[in-house]
Each structure stands twice: as structure tokens, then as C-alpha cells.
Amino acid sequence: MADDNDSQDAVxxxxxxxxxxxxxxxxxxxxxxxxxxxxxxxSTIPVARMDVxxxxxxxxxxxxxxxxxPMQMWFTGEYRDVIENERLVYTESMSDENxxxxxxxxxxxxxxxxxxxxxxxxxxxxxxxxxxxxxHAGIPADSPGAAGWTMALDELAARVEAHTNR
Amino acid sequence: MTIDDDxxxxxxxxxxxxxxxxxxxxxxxxxxxxxxxxxxxxMTLPAISKHIKAxxxxxxxxxxxxxxxRPCALDAAPLEEVSTWAExxxxxxxxxxxxxxDYLRQLRPQRKTGEHDG
Lengths: 166, 118
What we know:
The structure holds two protein chains of two kinds. By secondary structure, chain A is of the alpha+beta class. In chain A, 21% of the residues lie in helices and 42% in strands. Chain A has helices spanning 21-29, 31-37, 146-164, and strands at 10-17, 43-50, 57-66, 69-83, 87-95, 117-126, 129-137. In chain A, strand 6 (117-126) and strand 7 (129-137) form a beta hairpin. In chain A, helix 1 (21-29) crosses helix 2. Chain A is globular. Chain A starts with 9 loop residues before the first strand and ends with a helix. In chain B, helix 1 (5-15) runs antiparallel to helix 4. Chain B is elongated, with a radius of gyration of 23 Å. Chain B has a two-stranded antiparallel sheet. Chain B is mainly α. Chains A and B meet through strand 1, helix 2, strand 7 and helix 3 of A and helix 2 and helix 6 of B.
């Protein structure tokens, strides 16, 4: 029963782009292209390292301007599925600048819980355009502290559910 | 179910703090007194009380009326509203893909020379 809840905790977005499928693939896998669109407004992506093969790692730095000066957030992950121009699946976790994943205890959580989300991109050429379906299971880690506390929230919600479903 | 935005913001604000999340995680196991909640933290009781008050305002914690101990208990109702979090992040991704679209437009003249229209 609980497994079915996973699908609720995901963002699924379908888009059609007026571009060939190989270019959309590059949007996700070429660091220069990726940095051009990924960051929220007012932020930059000073670092995007991508070893795009199954088991390869990624490291992305997002830099935001805040009233207290620039703030950097680092994200790491691993490529789980890489089928060129078709499917890209990678994990994402908050990390330090060396790609060391922040553990549950770093985030002050009582339990040793994984803090990883998964991004899945599926591409298909349709009539000269590219259809893209992006699914982010877990919580997008792109606002200050989002990954930390939203993962914590998941953990919390699971506990609450366990206690209220008696 | 309709979501009260202000209430939701308050819930998120209350949750955006690791100490308060830890307190809630502890309360998910059962009600506790302020003293018990303070135990794992290197914080003064007034500091912990402040966190608990924030959780009370967000409707996440209710306190018993027994004058002496006033045990804290979790109220999960606001969390159920927050559980639609995924939809909150949809605009972030939509924004990204809007930018991808714009960026693709910028690239187009380089890829297909002679196709400037306007």
C-alpha cells in the first residue's frame, strides 16, 4: 500500500520543443548547455561536471545571490540509465563541493535516511519536434535548504502515517 | 480539499528548521513534555519552547491542558496539506523548461543559418 504513495510524490512534466532530439539530449548532458537553462532566475551554474554513463557521477553547483552575499549549493548524483537521445535517469542529493553526500545526520535528522531524489527524462521525436517527459521523484533540491527539509518532511510524513494508520 | 495558502506557508516556515523537524519526528513516536523534547538538544528550555510555540502556531503541535506538564502532541493535519508538495515544485521545473525553450531559440540561428524571421 505504501508503495503506491511514491507516485504522488513526484513532479511529472511533459513538454514539446521545436528542436531535434539530439539537441534536447545535449541540454541535459552537455555542461555548457545545461548551465544555460537549469538555474532558477537570478542564479548561475558555475560548476557542472557530468560523467554521462551508467554509474558515472555528476556534480552541479548552483550559486544564488542573497542579501548576505552569494550562496552556493552543491548537488551530486549518479547516472542510472543512459540511452542517448532516449532516456536519462540520474539521482540527486545535496552534497559538499567535493561531492560528499549530506547524510541524514548532517541534516539533523534522527534516522540515517537516504536523501536522494531521482530525475528521469524521456525523449521522443514527434513530427520534427521533441517530446520530453520529465519526472522528478522525491523533492527537487533547488531552493535554499529544500532538499534537506523536504526529505525530512517525507521521513516525517512516513512516520506520521505509520502512527495514524493503526 | 482546498489548500489555505497562508496556512501552508506557515506550515512550511515551521518545517524549515532542523530543530523543529527533529521535535516533530520525536512527537511522531508519541507525546512528550518540553523537558523530554529538549533532551537531545544543546539548547536552553526557553529556546526549545520558542520552537514549540512556532510549531503550535503552525497547528503542528497541540499541548495538553494539564498545568504542570502540558505534554506536546503532534497534529498531523497540516502535514497532509503539505503532502501535495510536488505541485509546489512544478513551477520551478516549468520555469526551467521555459528557459530551455528560450535558450533553444537563441541557438537556432547558429544551427540553421538563414532562418532568421524577425
